[in-house]
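Today's session is about reading a structure prediction critically. Students often jump straight to the picture, but the first step is always the sequence itself: look for stretches that repeat, for charged clusters, for runs of hydrophobic residues. Only then move on to the predicted structure, which in these notes is written as discrete structure tokens rather than atom positions. Here is the chain we will use throughout the hour.
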Amino acid sequence: MFNSFYQKLRLLLMTWLTEEPPSTEIMPYDFNRLKYEIRPGDVLLIEGRSRISRVIRTITQSSWTHTALYIGRLIDIEDEETQNLIRQHIDVKENVRLVVEDILDRGTVISTLSSYRNHHIRICRPIGISPADLHFVIKYVLKSVGQPYNVRQIFDLARFLLPWTIMPRRWGSSLFRSSTGEPESGVCSSLIAEAFTSVQFPILPFIKSDKEGIEIFHRNPYLFAPKDFDYSPYFEIIKYPLFNPDEPLPYYRRLPWTKSGFLHQDKGILTGPKVKKKKLDSANKEEKPPSEPFAQYENTDAPATELSKEKITSSEKEEKTPNNRPAE
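Below is the predicted structure for this chain, in token form.
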């Protein structure tokens, strides 16, 4: 009974953490161009919208919260063993584009690329990797399909990256164990990092220099976050803007910019242009009629009553003097 209650509670928690609200914005890239030009072995960086994505964003201080490895389509894979392995885990048509990823409530799974159509995506392409090594990388991640998601690694990574000093980082942490050379339970970034490390492909290696020369060390795969593939100089960043920059220049001059003057303040908030206060004040003064008969004199040094008396006296003298002759 306790076990069933625990499973139900765990399922509710996982559902609450991984639930993603629908996108309220148009993605700033062309998904149709991306799906036709993506290549097997490309690493996808994804900006998630779920609650667990917010946690990862806080821990890693990056907008990229998830990674996936593109493995291609079944019709593109020549190895029959790899094809059969994929068919054991997903039933799709041969022309469907597939990725391998680690998901919190499902573990390591094979998903379709189209499931991220409404997400912000960036492609990181390994530079100069050989076809044989690329094939080995894809087979490495496929061997891990079905393994559970390592929730503990998220907390260990948070303890390592955040400035907490209550407990030494090395005590009881799963981040500092030695790799066995086989795929292990992990998170999305560590699985892909392990796959590239297995063929000696660098991501963010540690470089040591001494009198004898330079020595390169692989970084612990469990320390990698999605943003590290973006920072790596060994991965080319591929972008497909919503508006094609290959059109005759300057293409940006022909974009449908708004003429309203409104600015977007994020989270769907639009604000109007600022109007200068001086113009408003001058307009109000022109429209506002004088409230008193002698309001035009209110900025003078003399009181309005004295000015009015002087004006009345002078006008009476002019009426008494005929033909503008001086009064006797």
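Discussion point for the tutorial: The longest strand covers residues 66-72.
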